[in-house]
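Co-fold these.
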Amino acid sequence: MNSGKIIEKKYRERKPDKPVKKKRDRKSYSLSIGPIHPALKEPVRFDLKIEGEKVVNVDFELSQVHRGIEWAGTRRNPVQIIYLAERICGICNICHSACFCIAVENIAGIGVPARAHYIRTIYGELERMHSHILWAGVAAHELGFDSVMYYTWKVREKVMDVMEALAGNRITKGIMMIGGVRRDIKEKQVPMLKEALEYYKKGFGKLGDIFLKDPVIKSRTVDTGILSKQDGLALCAVGPTARASGIKKDVRQDAAYAAYSDLDVKAITPKNLLGEVKGDVFDRIVVRLLEVKQSVEIIEECLKQMPKGKIVYEEKIPKLLAELRSVEGDGIGRIEAPRGEVIHYVKLVGEESPFCWKVRAPTYNNLLPWGPMLMGEQVADVPIIAASTDPCMSCTNRAVVTDGNNEEVLDNEAMRRLSVEKTNALKRRVGR
Amino acid sequence: MIEALQAIALIPVVAIVGIFISLLFKGIDRILAARMQARIGPPLSQPFIDVKKLFMKENIVPKNSVKWLFEIMPIVSLTASLVVLLYVPLFGFKPLLDGYGDLILVIYLFAIPSLAMVLGGFASSSRYATIGAQREMVTMLSYEFPLAISIIAIAWVISKTGTCIPAFSLGTIFTIPVWGLVGPIGFLGLVLLSLVMLFVMPGEIGTVPFDAPEAETEIGGGVLTEYSGRNLALFYISSSVKTIAFAALIVALIIPWNISNILLLGGTGAIVADALFFLAKLFIVVFVGSTFVRVAIARFRITQIVKIYWGYASLAALFGLLLIAIDLSWMV
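Predicted complex below.
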């Protein structure tokens, strides 16, 4: 008998839980932060148990901004999906589109020209710079330090200007293409890029002074929201969140893509600057600031080493699409986004549109570490700790269950049952 | 009798002028803060526009709230703030109700708007407001002590000038600049006390870095979470009036000088000059005590606020008091 049926039977037979009369706990009360709250830039609901000002239990609820992008993707051709992938996240638009391209290139065995690899790397690092500086501003705002927020965002404008000059757009740049990039970095654009890098090299000291030496920022962030190395490993934290806890994990180092194999990229931990790793919010600030510096160096190195030549595998898009229509198989793209590792899984079955497209954004991994981080902290620190992983909710949400106006909450069993049904239906569709 | 009637007639004038000036100062404060943060900032009239808009908006009372308490607290808060204005010297005049209440009363009156916010917060039955109200109470308890030390020390210095002077009366205090009554050690003590009072100001009026009770990014407005429309407007006006009332108190205590006798003016000229000079002094205090501090520092946690006020500020105030005591015993 197949296990799906047993589970289904179990699910049906399950009786509703009897309301257990709990002994009323007078010491603690629950406080819900979100889904809409001034501290949150995107909807997520924290359900905190509070004793006085201390957090004693943490739960959170996602899925307030599901947009069905993956579903929409399976109804478009791969080139159209690139632009859809850009819109998964306003900030990580390069890494999502690049990640999708890499996945498709893996399936079709498309070789990317060397110059395109370098251009991808430059864009990826520009994106990391702007994302980390943006985050620093948000962190200052969460600490009630708006002056720093305005200053930081003023500093960020420079990289935005560069991106606009290079790609024609500040945010959704539309630069990635399967098998390369769409626009070259021209010789006459290089001086402007170099000038911006100089600006950051000079401005970095001031930004560093503000965040690393200001006594109030220090007193609010040091020893706040600690994520130990063990917890970080056990809960699969990624990106700066993991690195701040001393886990040397960086896709650019571990599974180099684009031009990173030519460059010497090492995962940055707070040890580089502070000599010790605590895994607190301050360490996360340190790691991100150091990564901005690292990005500047990487771009400089790229500009030096960049070879000349083609920037895309196939310029004629109909020809590319025709080639992709004849391909079968599945592939994975991995990229180190500003927030951590992004994974795109794509399955092509020789049709116009992919059979399956699955996105795993880094925030998904960095959600569970909120538990150990928030436990035992003060309510006042919840926003900065939550923000310290740089969460991106709309990239993370994958499912929402609604039935008209009645919200139906599925438990584990029901979720499993639904997914078994879906898998069977898919199997039938493929004919296996 | 006629004096009393005059005073009563002047009360609405003081209230209206007080509200107007406080909102104007809020506008200036916002522009200056914006410029310091490299922004353009709102127009000068923004606080008036805000108040007008709030009065037009619907006044929502939460279902679970204690309605009468929730509704009455904004009025209590504004009334108390306005009453303070009647007891502090404004525009170089002695207080309107001089002789009917002194510094001690003023300190208590300053506690009422905060208490009203606490009660309103608890009455609104929102959890954010409850946390905010708890924090407001803790903040209040923390800053009252250093403030009381500072004020009492100044009154004590004044009391040494003569035997039967009403030392706690603001009508007296603002005519006798306290700085001339002490020697160099006492002067140092007074500087320390003035700094403590300026440092208490952001806590008293609830701005960054001591705005934990309202912390927008933490508890979404705290005590004011559930307030909207007219009630929120009343709290808004109340807090800005409280700002200038507290600044006026500091002006009266530590920079009470008038400019007319220096410029050798008389009659209407003297009154106008003193009034303008008063506004300038008020502006300096508001700028140093509120605008600059809120731009320069991040928000403290509630535990840090307690530590700072009870610990550092109180120690500084006690040390100032000690210096003054040494100075005064020297003189005797």
